[in-house]
Amino acid sequence: MGxxxxxxxxxxxxxxxGLIAAVIAPLIGxxxxxxxxxxxxxxxxxxxxxxxxxxxxxxxxxxxxxxxTTVVTALGLERLRRSRIYxxxxxxxxxxxxxxxxxxxxxxARGFNVNILNYLFGSILTVTTSDIYxxxxxxxxxxxxxxxxxxxxxxxxxxxxxxxxxGLPVRLINTVFIILxxxxxxxxxxxxxxxxxxxxxxxxxxxxxxxxxxxxxxIIYAELFSVLSVASGILISFYLDLVAGGTIVLVMLxxxxxxxxxxxxxxxxxxxxxx
Amino acid sequence: MSAVRQVMMAVDHTKNIIEVVNVSFSYGSRVVLENVSxxxxxxxxxxxxxxxxxxxxxxxKMMLGLIRPARGNVRLFGQDGHDFRDYQKISYVPQQTANFxxxxxxxxYEVAAMGRYGQMGIGRSLGVIDKxxxxxxxxxxxxxxxxxxxxGELSGGQQQRTLIARALxxxxxxxxxDEPTRGLDPAAQEELYNLLRRLNRESGLTLVLVSxxxxxxxxxxxxxACLDRHLVxxxxxxxxxxxxxxxxxxxxxxxxxxxxxxx
Lengths: 275, 263
Description:
The complex is a heterodimer of chains A (275) and B (263). Chain A contains eleven helices and no strands. By secondary structure, chain A is mostly helical. Chain A has one domain: ABC transporter involved in vitamin B12 uptake, BtuC. Chain A is globular, with a radius of gyration of 19 Å. The termini of chain B are far apart. Chain B has a single domain (5-262), classed as P-loop containing nucleotide triphosphate hydrolases (Rossmann fold, 3-Layer(aba) Sandwich), CATH 3.40.50.300. Chain B has a six-stranded mixed beta sheet, sandwiched between helices. Chain B has a four-stranded antiparallel beta sheet with strand order 2-1-4-5, covered by helices on one side. Chain B is built from eleven helices and ten strands. By secondary structure, chain B is an alpha/beta fold. Chain B is globular, with a radius of gyration of 18 Å. The chains are: A mainly alpha (275), B alpha/beta (263). The interface between A and B is large, with 31 and 44 residues.
């Protein structure tokens, strides 16, 4: 077998796209988990499905309408959170509301000449070169913004009130972050599909956090787990003829379980739990 | 060496740096503060005491500009609280239990560095002056040796001193603390009070703190403000203790409430 998969250009494009998403997702994911925003990733991914449906309905680029609706919703969620009427149930309403909208639109237009399953479960094999350019550009925007705002984001995530007293523009930083989270969701749609985006973003972060290292190391571990899962998930799915998105997430879960069981044996300082 | 060295030069006890004028505040229909006026002078060590729900934390957050008073106003260094932008002059040590995620993957050093982020500018990394201030703050708080530890590995007292180092690294003139000794064992409490006393007496740092520990705080603070929605007293500890009615009122109330807490 060997390198035969590289003879297929669609496979190469799929791998490239997968790796871009694999690098970006944990960068956002670690902060989402620490901010206890995990459910927001899930909510935004369902909102993106409504965005896709709207795009297909009006004959627009579904990727771009998904991006637009996700960003707008993200800003709305951040505003809700700030006004303190935000709650888990508000997220649940957004999540199920946008799913309902998507289902109705998809039902209306049975004639959409697309496979809805591609959006639900990922479609790494149908990625075009222009998709890669668009997603690559988004990834660069996210990466650069994360580098610029990194220390501020750490301080705001750790202690929002203290960050405000220090004079940091807390509102701006939270807004930038939630937009980046929305962009990340949009990037991840073709890789694992709408239903599994939260897994792609959250699982490597949670796995790395179990190792109890400082933030930079935690992000590096999360990146390692993510890239490893996406690359091996795509390869496994290719050779065993499985769905790539689901395979990637199953590999992530396997790593999560492995780390949970063996973390005391992983070299480094022993940590006593809690304080 | 001292992170607050510039203040040492001239502590002017007649200069008011915080002026709270007739402020009121309520959460929904529950009034927590009513017509409270209070001044804090440079070099002061003011303790806000009072039963739970007496508005202590609310008043503290109002002085910090985190909450805007419904009526009245707060002036910091002569500026209206809401327009105040001189952030490096003030610092905040929040209530640990409320704001602290002990699983957060940061080191003591990284937390202490956060105190300087506001002055550094977005996208900038720590410069030589920042690093000196962080080291001085960590040494003052007695946390330099532990700087590479994750905050989750520390005792409660060490976590609290890490938050104090974060507050000190910005080289502030005033530090606001919300129940800094809460949940600490007696030895750690003693250590914390010693640290605060040194910062106040030797470095001239102005302290405003919320406390439940009336016995201890009357020995430490310069002024006591008793709060029960209204400002009931604002005295020196000696005057406060001499007023048996006040002591029985606040002492009793507080002791009962503190007791409930530990049950």
